[in-house]
Design a protein that fits this description.
Layout (H helix, E strand, L loop, with lengths): L1 E10 L8 E16 L3 E4 L15 H13 L5 E8 L9 H16 L6 H12 L2 H9 L2 E7 L2 E7 L6 E7 L5 H6 L7 H20 L5 H5 L5 H4 L6 H10 L4 E4 L6 E5 L3 H12 L6 E6 L7 E4 L3
Parallel strand pairs: 3-4
Antiparallel strand pairs: 1-2, 1-11, 2-4, 2-5, 5-6, 7-9, 7-10, 8-9
This protein binds L-homoserine.
The site of L-homoserine has 12 residues, from helix 4 and helix 5.
Organism: Gehongia tenuis
Function: Catalyzes the ATP-dependent phosphorylation of L-homoserine to L-homoserine phosphate.
Family: Belongs to the GHMP kinase family. Homoserine kinase subfamily.
């Protein structure tokens, strides 16, 4: 029996649309046990309809595709999915399923795929490297695609900050959040984003917290997506008042993330209290960067 752990991720990190991402200390667990035939899927009923049933299940489909790519027949399977990562909230739940599926299949086959194969396969399946890459290797990552090749850098730790992850109780499908974005932007806005995405990564590497508010700003996606999130501007203003050093939408949203360098518990308490006055229910978690990304172990049945 193989048990796989995959961290949540936050893509974009402000201006780094489709290229910056980080792994967070919140996890999905997937347990797979090969059988002669058939598929037994095991996940809490409360995850329906957001988790696909039967052979449509994303972890299962990914495993099947991985076996096909390696050229081996897929065995029957018991598959248990424990979704610690909230689904369709901008925290990389789909990427986590894809990463879990590839790692589980590779482990059952005796690891024919190496790290680079896995990164490129996961990116091809998900469509973007900014969620799958940090889920696989952890840390804060920057990635660029050249044809099918992924060029990347990983910063292992950003120990001087924590992340207040604010998760609302309503989902926002990525397709909807991408559908609202303009096809083209001006050179001025392109420069605005290139400078801020670079500033975010460089400031996280060098510990320059004073740059993070400016580095979080963006003209590619957040101004369009925030209309799906009631109280977006109120939450940003409150986070600033409570001393946050920067703030961005997590992935395609609706989760919002504030960067903190102190007073984590106070921020959590105050923001929890503030958002409790809203019509939607919000949860506030203080998380840190998951340094190493997904891992697996063999466990007794
Ligand atoms: N970079 C992607 C987006 C992440 O913002 O649409 C989606 O998970």
């Amino acid at each position: 029996m193989i048990k796989v752990f995959v961290p949540a991720t936050s893509a974009n990190m402000g201006a780094g649309f489709d290229c910056l991402g980080m792994a967070l200390s919140l996890y999905n667990t997937v347990i797979v046990d090969p059988r002669e035939e058939g598929l037994i899927l095991d996940f809490p009923e409360s995850d329906l309809p957001l988790v696909e049933e039967g052979e449509n299940n994303l972890v299962y489909r990914t495993m099947k595709e991985t076996y096909k790519i390696v050229g081996r027949p897929m065995p029957g399977l018991y598959l248990r999915q424990i979704n610690g990562i909230p689904i369709t909230r901008g925290l990389g739940s789909s990427a986590a399923c894809i990463v879990a599926g590839i790692i589980a299949a590779n482990a059952l086959m005796g690891q024919p795929l190496k790290k680079r194969d896995i990164i490129e396969l996961a990116t091809r399946m998900d469509g973007h490297p900014d969620n799958v890459l940090p889920a696989l290797i952890g840390g804060v990552t920057v990635a660029a695609m050249e044809n099918e090749r992924v060029y990347y850098v990983k910063q292992m730790s950003v120990d001087f900050v924590r992340f207040a992850v604010m998760i609302p109780d309503f989902p926002l499908p990525t397709s909807m959040a991408r559908g609202i974005l303009p096809e083209e932007i001006s050179r001025k806005d392109a420069v605005y984003n290139i400078s801020r995405a670079s500033l975010m990564m460089a400031s996280l590497i060098t510990g320059k917290v004073e740059n993070l508010w400016a580095a979080s700003d963006d003209r590619l996606h957040q101004p369009y997506r925030k209309k799906f999130i009631p109280h977006f501007d109120d939450i940003v203003a409150k986070a600033k008042e409570l001393g946050a050093k920067g703030m961005f939408l997590s992935g395609a949203g609706p989760t919002m993330i504030a960067i903190l360098d102190k007073d984590y518990q106070r921020f959590q308490y105050e923001m929890d209290y503030y958002t409790s006055t809203f019509e939607d229910k919000w949860e506030v978690h203080i998380l840190e960067v998951c340094r190493d990304g997904a891992w697996w172990e063999e466990v007794e049945a």
